[in-house]
Amino acid sequence: MLAAAAAAIGEAQGSAQSAGPKTVGPTSSPILPDAQAEPFEVPVVQPGPGAETPEEIRLLSDVNLDVTIELGRTRMLVEDVLRLGSGAVVELDKLAGDPVDVYINGRHVARGEVLVLNDNFCVRVSEIVSADETVPET
């Protein structure tokens, strides 16, 4: 049974690669705006009043956290996932320019905007999510 599934995935990938770009998702017309990256400077951030770090927090300063930036989500049928290949387009539930969600260790903590800095993507945090909104990532 696993061999049949692997063969089906390989066949779907081969046909997807040879057929050119495809749109996979809730609608059939992709939204591909001609976005231009604009240069920007990173401002120097000074600590505000009350920004002293308690000793207990300072002890944890070298602990690694998983940070996830989520552009958007979609739901797909297994059939559509099997057809994914090079050049496939997967539509998400957010529009270009919408804020992205920032998760730390699976918990939603902020929203921000995607920027390009030194040819790398980065996120400028624009809003810290209130404690009422911080629900674990699903």
Could you characterize what this model shows?
This protein has 138 residues and is of the alpha+beta class. It has a domain at 70-128: SpoA-like (Surface presentation of antigens (SPOA), Roll). The protein is built from three helices and six strands. It has helices at 2-19, 55-59, 78-82, and strands spanning 22-24, 67-70, 88-90, 100-104, 107-117, 120-128. A hairpin with a 2-residue loop joins strand 5 (107-117) and strand 6 (120-128). The longest helix is centred in the N-terminal third of the chain and has 18 residues, at 2-19. The radius of gyration is 20 Å and the shape is extended.
What would a concise description of this structure say?
The protein is of the alpha+beta class and 138 residues long.
Notable characteristics:
138 residues; alpha+beta; Surface presentation of antigens (SPOA); two-stranded parallel sheet; 3 helices; 20% helix; extended; disordered N terminus
User: What's the helix-strand series?
Assistant: HEHEHEEEE
| CATH topology (fold) name of the domain at 70-128 | Surface presentation of antigens (SPOA)
Could you say what the CATH architecture of the domain at 70-128 is? Roll
Assembly status: single chain
Could you name the CATH class of the domain at 70-128? Mainly Beta
Beta-strand portion reads 25-35%
Number of strands: 6
**Structural class of the secondary structure composition?**
alpha+beta
Q: What is the overall silhouette?
A: extended
Portion of residues within helices: 10-25%
Largest sheet: 4 strands, antiparallel
Give the CA-CA distance, first to last residue.
30 Å
The CATH superfamily of the domain at 70-128 is identified as SpoA-like
Q: Order of strands in the sheet with the most strands?
A: 2-4-5-6
Based on CA atoms alone, the radius of gyration comes out at: 20 Å
Total DSSP helices: 3
Low-confidence stretches: 1-9, 15-20, 26-32
In round numbers, the mean pLDDT is 76
